[in-house]
Amino acid sequence: MNITMIGTGYVGLVTGTCLAEFGHHVACVDKITEKIERLQKGRVPIYEPGLEALVNKNVAEGRLRFTTSLADSVPEADAVFLAVGTPTSRRGDGYADLTYIFEASREIARHLSGYTVIIDKSTVPVGTAAQVERIVRQENPEADFDVASNPEFLREGAAINDFMRPDRVVIGVKTERAADVLHEIYKPLYLLDTPIVRTTIETAELIKYAANAFLAVKISFINEIANVCEAVGADISALARAIGMDGRIGGKFLHPGPGYGGSCFPKDTLALMRIVQEYGESLRIVSAAVEVNAAQKARMIKKIRDMLGGSESGKTLAVLGLTFKPETDDMRESPAVTILPALLEKGARIRAHDPKGMEEARNFLPLEVEYATNAYDACENADAVILLTEWNQYRALDLERIGSLLRKRIFIDLRNVYEPEKLRSLGFQYTGVGRK
Questions:
Q1: Does 59 share its domain with 182?
Q2: What domain range includes position 114?
Q3: Which among 103, 106, 120, 130 has most CB atoms closer than 10 A?
C-alpha cells in the first residue's frame, strides 16, 4: 500500500520505517527542512536501537522516502497517518495541544485524491477524530475519506520490537471500508497471530491514555511502597519480586526509582485528568499517582543531601545517566531535569555522563553542568556518585576504581542496580531506594 506519514518524530519515524519493512511504500513528511535533509542523508535525528540501520535499508530498497511536500505523497496515499506532537498545552493546564493535528488535517484535505483513510497515530483526547473529520470536510467537501484511530504502544529503547511483535493492535473505525485498509496495513502481523482489537473510535482514543495512566499508577505505587520499606527496614527488591510473581499483578513496572518521566506518562496522565473533568468525572487514583511522582523526585533530592551530610554546597557530584530511561536520548521529563538544577542551586558542582543523552541534555539542563567522557572521568575527585539512569554500561562498573577516584566513597544508587552489601564491603557509604 502507499502510505504517507505526517511527522518524523519518534512515533512517526519508527512507525513509517517499520511499515516500509512490512513491504509498504511509505513517504515520511515533515515541515522541518533540516530534519528531512538529514534523514535523506541517512542520519537519524533520534537514538533508538536498530532504527538507523532499518531506515537506511528501506531507503536503499526504495520503500521509504522523506519529503517536505504533501503534494507529492498524499494524492497517491491509501492511508495517511497523523503522527505529530501533542504536547501539554502552553497554558500549563494539562490539556493536550492539538494545534499540529489540526494544521496537518487542513493541509492533508487540500491534497486528497481518491478514497483515503486518515489515521490518528498520535495520542489524542477523545473526540479528536471527529474534529479531524469536520476540518477535512470543511476544507474539501468532495473528499472521499474516513478517519480512524490507531494508537501507538511503543516503548523508547524497544520500539522496533514493539512494532514488529506487538501485544495487540488497536483500530478504532466507523466503517468496514476503513477497517479493511487498516487490516491490510497490518496484514504481516497476522502470521504472528497478533490480536487485532477493533473498537469504536472513541474507545481507541481512550485506550492509550488508560494504558499509560495504569502504568504510571503502578510506578508510583511501588515508589510509595519503597518509601515504606525504608521506614520499616524492609527490602523493596524482594518485595517487588514476590508480588510480581502474582499473575494478577505481573513483574513489569515494579522497579522503584526517582519517578517516571519521558514523553508519554507525565503528559498523558495530565491530559487524561483534564478529559474526564470535562465530563464531570474525576480520576483520584491517577491524580494521586501524579502527586506521588512529583514528591518522589523531591525525596531523591533530600536523599542525596542527607548522604552528603546535610548540604551539597561546595560538593562535586558525579552523575551517571541523564535520560529518563536507558536506550534512548530522550530527556523529556527526566528526573535529572528536576534533581540536578535543585542541587546546583544549593551550590553543588555536577559532572555528568550519559552514553547517548549528553547532546540532548544540554537543551534541558543548566549550563553549569559539566559533561564527562565516561563514567570514570565523571567520578574523578567527586565527593559522591549518583546512579540516575540504569544504562547497561553502569551495571558492571569497576567499583574499586570508582572508589579510588572519589574523594569519599559515597554511592547513591537511585535505580537499585548494586547490592548494598557489596558496596559496603568495599568501604562505600551506600543508599538505594526502598532498602537499607
A1: yes
A2: 2-199
A3: 120
Distance CA 432, CA 436 (A): 7
Q: What is the pTM of this model?
A: 0.92
Owner of C-alpha cell 552489601? 421
Exactly one of 18, 28, 229, 264 is catalytic; name it: 264
114 with 79, same domain: the answer is yes
Cα 245 to Cα 98, 217, 234, 240: the distances in Å are 40, 19, 18, 9
What size, in residues, is the chain? Answer: 436
* DSSP run (H or E) holding 148: strand 145-149
Note every long-range contact of 344-348, with CB atoms under 8 Å and residues 24 or more positions apart, other chains counting.
344/368, 344/369, 346/305, 346/311, 346/312, 346/313, 347/311, 347/312, 347/313, 347/314, 347/315, 348/312, 348/313, 348/314, 348/315, 348/316, 348/317
**How many structural domains does the chain have?**
3
pLDDT-derived band at 92 (thresholds 50, 70, 90) equals low
* 91 pLDDT higher than 70: no
CB-CB contact of 347 with 316 (8 Å): no
204 in any annotated domain? no
Residues 161 and 216 in one domain: no
* Separation of alpha carbons 28 and 66, rounded Å: 5
**Same-domain pairing of 153 and 91:** yes
264 assigned to active site:
yes
Cell 514476590 found at: 242
- pLDDT, one tens digit per residue, over 102-151 is 999 999 999 999 999 999 999 999 999 999 999 999 999 999 999 999 99
What the block records as the C-alpha cell of 407 is 574523594
Q: Are residues 306 and 408 in the same domain?
A: yes
Q: Are 122 and 151 in contact (CB under 8 A)?
A: no
Q: Is residue 375 part of a domain?
A: yes
Q: What value does the mean pLDDT of the chain take?
A: 96
